[in-house]
Design goal:
This protein is 9% helix and 40% strand. With 543 residues, the chain is mainly beta.
Length: 543
């Protein structure tokens, strides 16, 4: 038996991937291994090596990652309970499916394999059925597959099957692909709703390729704007989340015009080239710029300017949701699961309010981006994970110069910052405390090692705020904290003033670091080697 290998990446960053082994002769999956990322010691962990014997021999398959970090395994083929030796039955009397489509889910974190669920069956006879596309639905909860059905030598039908991660199904829909005019190479999902089919025109010489856009319900939109491609070439293709379609080809191209004013691209044999075309977004009323058709509004909105010290922001969805295991992140500032006290749902379950640390929006005139992971929330009705918000989409900035706000905000600022966002020329001093094990390790270091340790700690602290490392100063001198029974080391830092009113004052830097250290589990303090050794029960204490 000849075997082939297939690697499928998880949609969750730094989570895991699956290594599949299958028979190249009949494409039967024989085993798989769940591989999780390297641990802190650089080891790769293997979580499974499981035989999958319940997949009918000879069935075609497709494996795709799901938004919850798991995988869907789709199989299509003839019903094994229907054999060629059974008596022939007139088509109008058939009741047992002749073709079936099953899904098996490989769950995230555990690698658990579910029993097969039937998501589509065809009673009428067919010459062949194939899987054209399997993916997450981006404009509604759930998953989908598009299959091609060939009832006879002259006809191919394309059907979209919608289903959920519990194996239940939605009503299938037919794509209006004119197979008399087109030969389909491949179908791609569009993140902003709908599909694009890469096709070749029939009865056209030389062979000419183009793309046809379809709405989510399968009805035709139109041909894309990219010039048609002339030549019988295999062209790698794909789509980006912003609805850009890309393709590579092994020849440079000249663009010419047909008599019908439709542009053509012809090979000029000059080498590899890449072409892109922006596909019109099909769900404009629901598309608010987040590449996520589930998101209605956010606070702050994209491009908005917020007050320094803002601690709340929110996302409003079109439909009710529940929190899940995904995370929300303020890049370089904090990260936490949506299923924590830092994230609260409104009474109507549509608005998710997220809390920011006092230290988060502390720098005047700076840009911030919020990232919401896939599966941070699920659709309430179907309990299906929803798409998140990718980096550099939900972007806003803080005010360039501190302004006076209403008394409630001023009260908040005075409570959290002794002199909130006011430029001063004073330098300040503050103490941090190492945890117990880190204290004993530091004590035993040589002078050179101590110097490297404190300079690395200084650099990591500066990056967390962020401020230039030159704003902080320390040395290798230390003292034992007399206020705790366990022996823990105190290190002293000098914080220098800024150069103008747009720089954080020394006291504001101290307050920011104190806040982040005390909440280091969700702040960047826990992300670096040396700052992770700081005691969250102590903080960054002004002295």
């Amino acid at each position: 038996m000849r075997e082939g290998n297939l690697v499928i990446l998880s949609l969750i960053k730094n989570f895991d991937f699956f290594f599949f082994c299958f028979d190249l002769i009949d494409f039967r999956l024989s085993k798989f291994q769940l591989i999780v990322p390297r641990d802190k010691d650089g080891n790769v962990n293997v979580k499974g090596n499981t035989k999958m014997t319940n997949i009918p021999e000879g069935h075609k398959f497709e494996i795709f990652p799901t938004l919850d970090g798991g995988y869907g395994f789709i199989t299509v083929g003839k019903n094994p309970n229907v054999t060629e030796s059974q008596p022939k039955i007139p088509p109008e009397l058939l009741v047992v499916p002749s073709w079936i489509v099953n899904v098996i889910f490989i769950r995230p974190y555990t690698g658990e394999i579910t029993q097969p669920s039937l998501i589509y069956s065809r009673v009428a006879l067919a010459i062949d059925m194939n899987i054209e596309l399997c993916d997450n639905m981006y404009d509604s909860p759930g998953l989908m597959c598009i299959i091609s059905i060939q009832p006879n030598a002259d006809v191919i039908n394309y059907v979209k099957i919608g289903f959920l991660s519990n194996g239940s199904t939605k009503e299938p829909t037919k794509l209006e692909i004119d197979t008399n005019a087109y030969s389909v190479d491949r179908i791609y999902s569009l993140y902003n709703g709908g599909y694009v089919a890469s096709v070749r025109l029939k009865d056209t010489l030389p062979i000419t390729s183009t793309g046809i856009i379809y709405y989510s319900k399968g009805n035709l939109f139109r041909e894309w704007d990219c010039p048609r491609i002339v030549g019988n070439l295999i062209v790698p293709q794909g789509t980006f989340p912003n609805n850009t379609f890309w393709m590579f080809s092994d020849g440079g191209y000249n663009e010419v015009n047909e008599t019908n004013s439709k542009s053509l691209i012809e090979d000029n044999n000059s080498g590899w080239s890449m072409m892109t075309t922006n596909i019109q977004r099909l769900a404009m009323p629901f598309d608010k710029g987040y590449n996520n058709l589930n998101v209605n509004t956010t606070l702050p909105e994209i491009g908005e300017t917020i007050n320094l010290g803002t601690t709340l922001f929110s996302i409003t969805y079109y439909k009710p949701v529940v929190t899940s295991v995904g995370t929300g992140q303020l890049i370089l500032k904090q990260s936490y699961s949506a299923n924590t006290p830092f994230a609260l749902l409104s009474q109507d379950k549509k608005t998710l309010t997220l809390s920011a640390l006092n230290s988060t929006f502390n720098n005047p005139g700076k840009n911030y981006t919020v990232v919401i992971d896939d599966n941070a929330v699920k659709d309430l009705s179907f309990e299906e994970p929803l798409l998140g918000i990718s980096p550099n989409l939900w972007i806003f900035s803080t005010e360039s110069v501190p302004q006076r706000h209403n008394s409630m905000i001023e009260s908040f600022l005075l409570k959290n910052y002794s002199t909130p966002f006011v430029y001063t020329t004073a330098q300040e001093h503050a103490l941090v405390r190492l945890m117990g094990d880190a204290s004993f390790n530091f004590k035993d270091l040589s002078d050179t090692q101590k110097s490297k340790f404190v300079q690395s700690l200084l650099s990591e602290l500066a990056q967390c705020v962020p401020v230039p490392p030159s704003r902080l100063y320390t040395n290798t001198r230390f003292q034992w904290d007399p206020d705790v029974d366990s022996k823990q080391i105190l290190l002293k830092f000098k914080i220098l003033p800024g150069k103008n009113e747009q720089d954080l004052s020394a006291e504001n830097i101290i307050n920011s670091l104190d806040n982040m250290i005390k909440y280091k589990d969700i702040s960047p303090i826990s992300h670096s080697i040396h700052t992770a050794m700081l005691d969250s029960n102590y903080g960054f204490v002004l002295k």
